[in-house]
Amino acid sequence: MIDVKLCLFSSTPDMNALSFVVKVLTGRIEELPRRAVDWGYDGIEFMPDPERVPDPVEFDAVLRASGAVMPVVNTGRMFAQGLTLLDADPAIRKRAIEGFKRILDFAGHFKARVGLGAARGAGIPGATLKEMKSLASEVFHELAAHAEKSGAVIMLEPADPGVTAFINTVEEAMAWVDRVASPAFSVMLDTYQLADSEPSIEHGIRAARGQARHIHFYDPSRWPPGVREEKDRLDWPHIMRVLREEGFQGSGSVVLAPEGNPEPAARKSAAFLRRQLGSEAEA
């Protein structure tokens, strides 16, 4: 059995106006945790507006009332709002860093982890790799220092080249974890990236050296795992076996179905993943 808290990607209604790559559960803050639990999940991976982060005390009360957890806060909507940490424009970069720090402060109240994926941006056109690394080192060290003070942990997420040209593999992400060398700077996994950018999914999972504590369960079909099993591109039993062998534990999040009523698909995916996580059988 793999000890994982299952979460739904969630955000406030204004998220619907953004051009985001996947569909997430949206609604009033008072509704989100309750709906996630009712649909079979342990809680939510929340995506706040970086410029209007909720009050953590009020948010905590809502979570407690619903019995939900929030182990991870997602910064992905920063990219959709034009705020990227490694931006060519110093003014945008400054706003992005300030927004990310607000999210770290929010997450720190819950001792939660904060994903750093698309928020770093697609890469600066014309910049050399040396220039990108120099800027990233400055930004990552600044954010890690803030995370240490806030009580949050940053998780660097490698992403496929369709998202960013900078840090595409788990090995590249782990090199940054080594370089920043902070207890508040770690790594996370995403099954889409593992399938798209690694020599193999197994290679990518093992490259995290057991340090990953969060994973996005995301099939390249853009549907939640197990909803249309005959069309899933990923071998979920194999993925779970490798995670089990690596001693993975922590949390995992799921997106909503890209079309139709999201509730039945979300319920079906939660049940499917719990069966997979609980299976000790060799696939």
Describe this structure in words.
There is one protein chain. With 283 residues, the chain is α/β, with parallel strands linked by helices. The chain has a single domain (4-278), classed as Alpha-Beta Barrel (TIM Barrel). 41% of the residues lie in helices and 15% in strands. It contains ten helices and ten strands. The chain has helices at residues 32-38, 56-66, 77-80, 90-108, 129-150, 170-180, 191-197, 201-207, 236-245, 262-278, and strands at 4-11, 25-26, 43-47, 69-74, 113-116, 153-156, 185-187, 189-190, 214-216, 250-254. Strands 1, 2, 3, 4, 5, 6, 7, 8, 9 and 10 form a ten-stranded parallel beta sheet that branches. Helix 6 (170-180) links the parallel strand 6 and strand 7 (185-187). Helix 8 (201-207) packs parallel to helix 9. The two termini are 14 Å apart. The mean pLDDT is 94.
